[in-house]
Amino acid sequence: MSVPVLTTADTPERSAGQRLADERAVKARDRLHRGAGRWVVLAIITFGALLMLIPFGMMLLNAFKSPADYSVNGPLSWPTEFYTNGLVNYWNASDYPLKLWNSTVIAGTVAVLAVAISLLNAYAIGVGRVKGRLWIVALFLLGNMIPQEALVYPLYFFAKQTGLYNTKLVVIIIFVVIQSAFGTYLLASVLGTFPKALLEAAALDGANRWQILWKVVFPIVRPTLSVLLIFFFIWTWNEFFIPLVMLIDNDTQTIPVALASLQGDRLMDAPTTNAGALISLIPAVIFFLIFQRTLTRGVTAGAIK
Amino acid sequence: MTVFAQQDNKAPTKRSAARPGRGGYWWYLVPGAILFVAVIGGPLIYNTFLSLTKWSGVGSPRFIGFGNYVRLFHDSVFWTSFKNSIAMIIAMVIIPTLIGLLLASVLFDYLGKRFGSSGISVLRAVFYLPQVLPVVVAGIVWGWILRPDGAFNAFLDAIGLSGFTKDWLGNPNTALPAVMLVMVWVQIGYPVVIFMSALGRVDPEIYEAAEIDGAGYWARFRAITLPQIRPETFVVALTCTIAALKVFGPIYALTRGGPENATNVPSYFAYYTFFKKLDVGYGAAIATVLTIIIVLVAVGIMQWQAASERKELSGS
Lengths: 305, 316
Prior knowledge:
The complex is a heterodimer of chains A (305) and B (316). With 305 residues, chain A is an all-alpha fold. Chain A has helices at residues 14-32, 37-63, 67-73, 85-93, 96-127, 133-145, 149-162, 168-192, 196-204, 209-238, 241-246, 255-264, 270-304. Helices cover 77% and strands 0% of the residues of chain A. Chain B has a two-stranded antiparallel ribbon with strand order 1-2. In chain B, β1 (53-54) and β2 (62-63) form a beta hairpin. In chain B, α2 (26-50) packs across α15 (280-315), α4 runs antiparallel to α12 and α14 (266-275) runs antiparallel to α15. The radius of gyration of chain B is 27 Å and the shape is globular. The model of chain B is unreliable at 1-22 (pLDDT under 50).
């Protein structure tokens, strides 16, 4: 991999030096596409990626295996028959369509409402520049940072008092606030740099603040809002702790909570556990495939602030 | 003069239009503020109050001052759970950041230039996949893999290492390392994705120039990659450390804090104390201490970042 080092100082003429540099650049580009080293590195990294996939491979292998086959041949063997009863059993035992509906309603409502609240908050902070906005942003950031354990018992207690315990509504309200705390923090800095000229032009045309928000600000930040929407949806979909505490029966539980509570009962054999995990992962894998680009870009948008 | 007069005439109207406006923006904060107080502010304060009481969740809480905190200080489970938080930080921050740095730079700077970006984005997606799945579901699959009759022991049997098979999650000596392994698997994709897009921000000419000047991979990694992506390194350190201190789902799915508290963490300890032992005041104290630690660590990392940025500014 070592490259001969030439310094341009050696070349007397400028044009000759330039030519040499050009030659070297071409050589460097050529070198990138030659040699066995790159295949070795590619093989190592691909091997690492395959290691990452082993748990999924194991899950797939055993989700289609009958319990008898599993107990005779163990986890590593190829299934003797294409057994789908594990999937059917889990589908029925968990009432999967209902769980899918619950997860979708909760995550979808949270995503839309949390984006709306984030936008309203950020409009006041970023565009309205209300007094004490730094402290307000810090408060929202803190709200997103603190562990849910520090909120859970009072929330559980109040939910029981108000009859909201074991309803989708209480989980929706809680996550609208937790997600919008992050959204406010992110959007406030985006709207803080919103072009003043646009706002002033709209105000001169006689638009009031509410109209400016929806007719000027909203269309321009819509790409950022859609990234937030996707993130809020997936984060809420994957949430576990508060849904575990708040949702205790079949009619309200989400997909991850249903799998954990059925598995916790220790009634499921290994193939059914894998079949359950498989169908519980499918929606998230589909989101991932659809939104892969947004997700990998969006994480960065959050990182850069 | 007329110009001045006109301006003078306009100024008050403009100001009077701006004045109520400034107040007017507060209305946009009202829904968010009400929800925030109801779901975060109020409960947080009430939880802090509960940490000063003895309460089982029925009847009324009995005020006992700092009794719960004194008890916490002498509780070995509490110390074990925070010691395990350090293990979680190693597994969720330090190891993923180091491997992530290497992977991101190899994928971007080495393989990306030799094999094109489409193949690289497939590899990146594979590493990132565990990040977008419900972590509890992944934890349940891992729990089965590491069971005595699970896939890992079957693999050891198959390659002739039967002597090494054990109940990985049930043995106090191996449970914590096994959980750490799972957390590395869960977490690794996050730094890879963040660092790769950070590298995308770096002007490729810097790398080309360095390469033409004969800088090898390691020289470029140290002289260009590391300094260029320092802001992202802080973001990864901050968000992953908070996540490590809060970790709950994987512990619930894998070990429920066992065996003999070998994998207990503060969040699971608080959950168990609240809802299984019904010792609400004590659970609230655990949660309060965890909150304080998270806030202190976050503020510490942000200060460190600010100091490092200042140093960089004055240095260059």
